[in-house]
Amino acid sequence: MAAEQTFHHPKRTYGALIGKTLLRLLLIVQTIAVVYPLLWNVMASFKTNAEIMDNPWKLPGGIEWINYVHAFTTAKIGDYMLNSVLVVILSMSILLAAAVPSAYVLGRMRFRGRSFFNNFYIAGLFIGGVYVIVPLFILMNNLHMLDNRFWLSAVYATGSLPFSIFLLTGFMKSIPHDYEEAAMIDGCGYFSTMLRIIVPMARPGIITLIVFGFFDFWNEYVMAMTFISDDAKKTIPVGLSNLMQIQQYATDWGSLFAGLVIVLAPTILIYVLLQKKLTEGMMLGGVKG
Hints:
By secondary structure, the protein is mainly alpha-helical. The protein has 13 helices and no strands. The two termini are 50 Å apart.
């Protein structure tokens, strides 16, 4: 019996090659569009004001480390960063304390009203925080919660709760009930089982939640600007906005770009360190959720 021969149609081969080439060109263009502004920002942070105003596309003649010194001393970027770090830690703590038990109950227990609560949290995904900021401001003002970093963190955590529960519930459902039953036999209660068995096994989902939460809390601007008016308590986005307005008149552009680099550094570092786990968590949640 003669061996079968496979023939490839030339037009299909050329079409696939052209498609791959165009896709790669598109990815290269998108990469340049994302990376170039970051590199330009870093380059501008080492320039003098004269170099920035003379030719913003030219490489710096030297390294002006004094721009970073001014960013911390004159522009008070360090104070804004400390406020943002505090708000992020508080927000993440409140979010995890509320989202993990809620997702555990909704994902692994059967009770009357479960579907209602599940749909209630899913509906919260379609309500943006900006849409309710006016009644929220009135409520917080009446309860004397303004200019308080803890209550700002509570608002952040509450706004992220629907997505967090939606994300973690998929991971909770994917864990076999055999582990839970074995823990119950050993004498563990619901809370102990959740902490000792379920939470470690749902760690990819929790890491994914932490990364998304960090980006949201670190970069949030509208609520921080609305609920915080004390300069000593302002977060990074609000501080950068104020800094930009000031530097326009002070003509200290180098310090402004240095402040932007300082603010971008933690987000890039977090993504580089947790990018693999973030991708694994999203793929696992998408397959099993």
